[in-house]
Amino acid sequence: RDNFAKKGQKVVDANLEVGRRAYDFARDRYAADFDYKMEPVEAPPRMVITGNQAISLGALLGGCRFMSAYPMTPASSILEWLATHASRYGLVVKHSEDEIAALCMAIGASHAGVRAMTATSGGGFSLMVEALGLAGMTETPVVIVEAQRPGPSTGMPTRTEQGDLLFVLRASQGEFPRIVLAPGTVEQCFHAGWRAFNLAEKYQCPVIILIDNFLANSVRSIERADFHFEAVEVDRGEFLTWEELDQLSDSYKRYAITETGISPRARPGHPNAVFVACSDEHTEDGHFADEDPENRVRMVQKRLRKLEVAVEEMRAPTLYGPKQADITLIGWGSSYGPVREAVDRLNQEGEKVNLLHFTDIWPFPEDKVRP
What we know:
Elements: H1 9-30, E1 46-50, H2 51-61, E2 64-69, H3 76-89, E3 92-95, H4 99-111, E4 115-120, H5 122-138, E5 142-148, H6 165-170, E6 179-181, H7 186-203, E7 206-212, H8 213-217, E8 219-223, H9 242-246, H10 293-310, E9 318-320, E10 327-332, H11 336-348, E11 353-358, E12 360-362
Parallel strand pairs: 2-3, 2-4, 4-5, 5-7, 6-7, 10-11
Antiparallel strand pairs: 1-8, 6-12, 9-11
Helix pairs in contact: 2-3, 2-7, 4-5
């Protein structure tokens, strides 16, 4: 009744009749040989959800209001899920003509002031790399989900592999900050979904959520409480409000050099905050300046200083198994489940083994790894 009510009573009645006839058929022919009794089990309601859906849900609760993507396995269901729920939650979803356009659209939406994302796999991310550099140079926050599959080229679209880590860490020419998260469970996918937007806007840089086909499309049954919805928060960082811009007396410098490297950000349109968002190297107000070596050094250092602050927000790896072990296995992302099982088996055989699992990959939380 719940599923078919919107299709009319005739459809509801037809489906109920099919159910009754199937029940009667089984009772009349097989009841004598079926002596199993099923007792009801009291259990809290559970969600059946995939990693891609969990990231999408986290992004939605984290304030994402624009998503553009070109379908590519295994990331396609993020586009599909968000498109399905777009009208209900005030989200704009664009099926772009290709991956280059997808990221450029997301960068444009973010530049205009809304939280924006895209999703793809390794081949699509290869096409996005130049636009990734644009986000780095213009210091525009954007979230990219990269769902890995075996490469190179078309590779194996329906299989899984963790082959793109070094690629996403260094993609695009030159140096600029980026943050890489690699959740290992459905619950971690949810939290990466909203955290990515906070990190992108606080540090005004691209944030890449790195998953793979195994985690993206595996189905899990979990309790609602396991998601800890109360932990979700929205932090837009140094984002000037319209009222603050009204009070601005000095000329606005979009790329002002600061101690942290983070400059006050403003959405376009206010007369007190006119600036140029240039893909060339630029001055503090955004104007073209690729013939000034001293300015170049200042701006590169300014952008990279953001990582020195961002690393403090990177979460420490989790330790599974005994604190004192002869062997420590190190994993990241979706390897968590298989490696944890290996740890359990080895410990049952008398070995002393534990697992150090990373979800926050870059900037690398070095100080949180040391004993």
